[in-house]
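Hey, resending since the last one bounced:
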Amino acid sequence: MINTNRAMILLTLLFTFACSMTYAQDVRTNYMPGTDWSKYRTYGWVDDVQGVPAVGGRPDQILDTQVKQAIDAQMAAKGFTKVADGGKPDLLLGYQLAIDREKQINGFASGWGGGWGGGFGPWGGGLDSFSASTSTINIGTFVVGMYDPAAKKLVWTGAAQHAIEPSKKPEKNQERLNKGAQKLLKDFPPGRSKGN
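The structure tokens again:
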């Protein structure tokens, strides 16, 4: 019966861990097959990118700056140059934000039951008590689109979920945005070898 007690302890610990686990950032990208990525060296920001469906509203000026700074840093690290307003960039970049509310479940266990009949199994060893609570958290997703103005087509799009939590401190928001932008553009441009 010792194996049963160990299994119950392990299951309880795993359940508690799963219930209190924070959400990891999830990133998804897509691009136009056959695109010659070597011809793109510059980019500029626009309010809307043609071909990207609307997912949310426009952010305030502070959040707008934070999102653009996070993407700008990643684009610069990949050798792209941002063109000033009025210039002729190779790519037009735009983004949208969506804030969703999700339930988070937090589980708490206390004490281990006595042996010989109490708790789980025929000889005991279960939890004295277990409780769970829920809370509502705000989860932010940003969607980035890249449009080729010469070819007049969307060439790349990506979304980073759990990249913004509006209730957090501004520094924490920027940190999460930076991490989301880094993950989002990790394999950009598509087809580029790891050594480049």
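The helical segments are 2-20, 61-77, 170-184.

Sorry for the duplicate.
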